[in-house]
Known about the structure:
The complex is a heterodimer. Chain A is an alpha/beta fold.
Amino acid sequence: MVTTSCDLLEFSPNDTRAPTSERDLTRKNLAALAQRPVPTSGDTLRFVFTSDSQRYYDDVPPLVASINQQRGLAMVLVGGDISDFGTAREMRWVNDEFKKLNVPYLTVVGNHDLTQNGREAYQKIFGPLNYTFTHAGTRFILVNTNGREYEFNGHVPDVPWLQQQLADTVGVQRQVVMAHVPPDDGDFDASVMPAYTSALEQAPRLVLHLTGHNDKFYVRQPVPGRVTYISGYSVAQRNYLLLTLWGRHQYKLETISY
Amino acid sequence: MWHTATLLAGLLLSGWSATAQSTEAPTPHPWYVPDHAVLQTGGGIGMITAGAGYSPGSHPHRFDTDVLVGYVPARYTGHRAFAIFTVKATYSPFSVRLAERWRLLPLSVGGLVNYTPAAQINRNSADKYGYRGYYWWTPTLRAGAFLGSRVALGLPRATGGKREVSLYYELGTNDLYVVSYLPNHKGLSLGQILTLGVGAKVDL
């Protein structure tokens, strides 16, 4: 694969230039998702959760090939750290592979995506750092929790924004939050953590909280019967999670190796 | 892209005609006057990059050392314009005579270090992830290496001697792209980590 001459003529590794087809990917992938019928029947929704593709380019094509074999899949969620150095080129390298997925993919920003000029590059290539969308009666809330990249300024994650999104339940049967840094991690802003977790625990329709960052798979439910916190696999771990939701709170979790 | 090309061509042509009409004597420069001026686009060191350098030794442009300042406008950085400061060394071991006044330097190899002090570049301060040695690279300093070629036209000075005007290209990469590529021969191709720089040099 050879880049075009305009790509080659790079002004800086920190520049945010990209062809139109490789900009605003979040908006475009959401539009593609909205146009697709939900492939599962009833109120069932199935999606893949993977994370931390950063500088593991060799592991991405096998991941895409494996995901493309799954049936009934609506989309793929990527839990951040798409890049290692926050450069537009890295994000575009990963998109070069993820665009081969049979279903749309959606990302949340990771701490590595915010290094160097990544804050601008991520917004140019993907889109907003906080956003939501609703699909198959499920409201997905994608929130920037990389507090350490903002010197723990008390505003990341944006809890008032999160509360607003969690409160908006019109036409929503269940909710899923995806973030990069989990709230019990040292890279999460400790001053915001109590307000963040209490907002989550008080949201009656929130089923799952998905995170990446620490390459460690676990499932926890600190308050019985309430939100389940899932820390997913990184791309380099050669595993991903296949999640199937139905009803108000039911879900099935499968680990797929590739 | 076209703006860049037009600008570069314009600046080059104005430099060219000034050179052709020059009548100044080829008196030896004081040491602090550079041997040549440089104008470049791309190569990871700016959209418009200007500089000056020395060619130590008896063969012109066999070995060049240049200092350059690059500019990347805000529309390509997402926020504010970048200034990029670069130190570059280029070695061209061969010179092939093409015509009476033309010669080709078929191979140039070089390296550079550049610094981008822009405030919007998120620094990897030691208190960030220092506990893991996690962010090991410097976000504002980049090292690069390149291969290229150059074609040069010798123009006579009115009082003897000549000055060269040359055009060059460089295919290069930087340290971050190399460490991305090295463990990922299947997931990345060499073409994906390449950058192109195109420029002109005029002897002073």
